[in-house]
Design brief:
The chain is an alpha+beta fold. The chain contains two helices and ten strands, in the order αβββββαβββββ. It is 16% helix and 42% strand. 16% of the residues are buried.
């Protein structure tokens, strides 16, 4: 057995080697980047917010021949949200969606969505110069961090009432422009034929699932 002095010497050397690691752990934790947006409702302040068009997307999904789903997106949506966290049911939402900027993974399909009708007839989908879609809320029923937002959706010149199942997804300050920002996810299902877009139903489903991700920045 080694003498006691040798044993203590080894223990001290090991401890000295470990000390830098012990001090480094809290330093690493302190330097780790923090996500600016969190699901803390207390971060939401009352006021009027504008959409962040570059980070607001309206996704849509349809069944293709019953084989699989196909999906695309609308971007660059603009609009406002007026919100008071002390009275969420009084919130107002007004969003405009540029249909002409529809995007899909297929250039051929995107072209078809925006193609004129044959021989001057009705377009299969939106046509080459579609009017913007618009959603204007008519009521909000909030429960915790979720809400059912009922509103009038105007699409293809037709207005129908739809309900958005909405969930608060985060709030905080944008690290680049320093603006107070809040985000929401929402889903809904609409019947496209109700808006006069009935081409190829039921081969392409009448039901269109909407998946919405929107960021609002507080107005100056």
């Amino acid at each position: 057995m080694p003498p006691p002095f040798a044993i203590w010497s080894r223990l001290i050397r090991k401890l000295l080697c470990a000390l830098p690691l012990l001090f480094a752990v809290p330093l690493i934790a302190q330097s780790a980047p923090q996500v600016p947006g969190t699901m803390e409702v207390v971060r939401v302040t009352a006021g009027t917010y504008n959409t962040d068009p570059g980070h607001t997307l309206i996704g849509w999904r349809v069944s293709h021949f019953g084989f699989n789903d196909y999906f695309g997106i609308f971007g660059d949506a603009t609009g406002t949200l007026t919100l008071d966290p002390a009275n969420p049911n009084a919130a107002k939402v007004d969003i405009t969606i540029p249909i002409g900027k529809v995007t899909t993974a297929s250039a051929g399909l995107t072209g078809h969505l925006l193609r004129a009708g044959k021989d001057g007839g009705k377009a299969d989908f939106f046509g080459p110069a579609p009017t913007d879609a618009k959603f204007v809320s008519t009521s909000v029923v909030a429960s915790g961090t979720t809400a059912k937002i009922t509103g009038d959706l105007t699409l293809n010149g037709v207005t129908k009432s739809v309900v958005l199942d909405t969930k608060f997804s985060g709030a905080g300050n944008n690290p680049f422009n320093k603006k107070s920002t809040i985000g929401f996810h929402a889903t809904s299902v609409i019947n496209r034929s109700a808006f006069g877009i009935g081409y190829a139903v039921p081969m392409i489903s009448d039901d269109v699932t909407l998946d919405i991700s929107v960021a609002f920045e507080k107005a100056s």
